[in-house]
Structure formats: structure tokens, C-alpha cells
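Hi P.,

Sorry for the delay on this. The queue was packed all week, but I finally got your sequence through. Input first:
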Amino acid sequence: MMTGFIDKLESEYTKQADAENAVHQKAYMRNQFEFFGLTSPVRREIQKPFLRQENRPAKAKLAQTVKLLWEKPQREFQYFAMMLAEKYAKSYCKEDILLFEWMITHKSWWDTVDFIAPHLAGKFFTLFPEKRNTVVDEWLNSGNIWLQRSSLLFQLNYKTRLDTEFLVYVINRLNGSAEFFINKAIGWILRQYSKTNPQWVAGFVNSTPLPPLSKREALKVIERNR
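Then the structure:
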């Protein structure tokens, strides 16, 4: 059933593939992934029926389905896998964090990680807050920049629910990194939270020696609103 489900999706992708656009998309991702060349609106329209509850695989088959999709060469399959996983958010179980970690650490790049962290891991930690500290510490200690980036970005959509004490802990653990994707993420999470609590962000940035990139990103909204 799962392979049939994926085969039907692949057939729909293939029908509307755009080889010229695929070349540009591949180049934008530094030639790391193949593409069908679908624009985002076209891809989302194709995916709609496959994401409907009556057509989705059973929750018990989610991990297997995601991994089959992840093995496919075209990046659109990974985008679909993430959106599929999000559809089961209300029925996540504690073991699902292992799937999300697997997704983060395979075919890793910002385009997938920046969806998985807030949309999948972020929702998981809302359901299972008791898992947060242990899992995030494992990510911070992993040496994997994508897990570390996820440690910062899982709270991206939390707004008033964002735990500032925990965010400070994570930033302090990663502060001083020479990695662009880490420093950019520090700035991004602070910039996003500044839309909710600009006073806190301004105070934190002014009292913390952050990399120039992180500080610049963090203050963008605050400075624009002055």
C-alpha cells in the first residue's frame, strides 16, 4: 500500500515536471538534490489529495513511509514527507522524536531542517515537555550542526509560550560557534521572538556578546520598528 501511495504521488509529480526549472532549483540547493522542477503552488496542489485523512497511510506506517520518501532522489518527496508527518501531530507518541531526528540528520540542509524543527519537533515538545531537556541536550552534544540548529529553532513558533530561560541556555551552549547556520539560527529565533517580546530580546542582545551575524539578525525587526 505504501509503495502504491508513493508511486501515485510520483506519477503526479512527473506529469507536471519542469526540467528547466529543476536545473535552477538544483543549483539553488548547491547541486545536492534532484528536483522535478515544480513550483511551490503546483507542488502543494498535487499533494492535497494525498494529505487528506482518508488517503493517508495509517499512523503506524508513518516512519516507514517517511523513510521510503526520504530515499527518493527528488527533493519534492522530502518536502511531502515533512508535511505528511505534520498531519499526525495530534497523535504523536514519544518514539516519534527518533523519526524526526532521523529526518534532521539525513539529506540534511536548511530547507528541510527549518521545517522539521518548528513544525515537527516543536509540536512534539509541546505534547511531551518532559522529553525536551534530555533530547535537546543530546542534540547540543551531538556535534551535528543540524541537530544543534534544531535546538534553537524548535521554539520558533511558540510566541508567548517560548521558554526564555531555556533559550538562553541553548544560545549560551552554542555561542561562539564559527558555523554560519548556527549563528544565523541564533539571530533568527531572537528576531522571531522580538515580534512578541522586543524588550526582552533587546535586553538580551545588549547584555550578551553575540556574533555580529546573530546580533544583526536578532535586531532587524526592533530596528525597523523604531
